Amino acid sequence: MRRPLRRPFVAPFFAALAAAVCLLPAAAGAQDAARPAATAMPAGCPPILQHTFPRLQDEKPQALCQYTGKVVLVVNTASFCGFTPQYKGLEALDSKYRSRGLVVLGFPSNDFSQETGTNKEIAEFCESTFGVKFPMFAKSSVRGAQANALFKELAQATGTTPKWNFYKYLIGRDGKVVESYSSMTSPDDRAFVRDLEKQLGPQ
Questions:
Q1: Of 45, 65, 81, 126, which one is the catalytic site residue?
Q2: In-domain check, residue 156
Q3: Tally of domains within the chain
């Protein structure tokens, strides 16, 4: 007597598989919800300021967008340069015009072999020697292929890269680069201060 053929026991297997597949989108959605969203730039932040750099003193990330609407003076600095005393004049500028909307941003660089210290050493030197309080950022390159993103944009906007330490770039409240100044231009140079005050506007 022929034994009846048994059907493969597949229905429960496929039912379980289908249930698992249905759960996948929900699980993926939960993961997406848990994943932190990318940091969005504040509305109105000009492209030139859409960068983040580590602070000199503690290397905590600082978004340059916090300076939106201000007149910004960007300077590449060094501790062992003939122009290093300009730190004093830059701090005086920042202190004098801060209430009118100026901010000086310092970017130490060893591109000219005159900033060999660590970030901590640079910070201590600037504060103890010149009483620097304006924002400064971790040591980085400011020219050539290794230049940081801000200085690459500044070079593109002005057609010039820093030729030496304490090169200066003036950015208006609208985020447009106004002018660049050589290391020979001291912080109290009359023409330079006149340009600065023009960007700041009436008191």
A1: 81
A2: yes
A3: 1
d(CA 192, CA 184): 11
Residue-by-residue pLDDT tens, the chain, 203 positions: 555 545 444 444 444 444 443 444 444 443 443 333 445 667 799 999 999 999 999 999 999 999 999 999 999 999 999 999 999 999 999 999 999 999 999 999 999 999 999 999 999 999 999 999 999 999 999 999 999 999 999 999 999 999 999 999 999 999 999 999 999 999 999 999 999 999 999 98
- Answer yes or no: are the C-beta atoms of 169 and 74 closer than 8 Å: yes
Residue 113 lies in a domain: yes
22 is catalytic: no
CATH of the domain at 196: 3.40.30.10
Name the helix (H) or strand (E) containing 178.
Answer: strand 177-181
Given the structure tokens 């289908």, which residue do they identify? 18
Q: Is 110 among the domain residues?
A: yes
3-state SS, residue 126: helix
Residue range(s) defining the domain that contains residue 181: 47-200
Q: What is the pTM assigned to this prediction?
A: 0.80
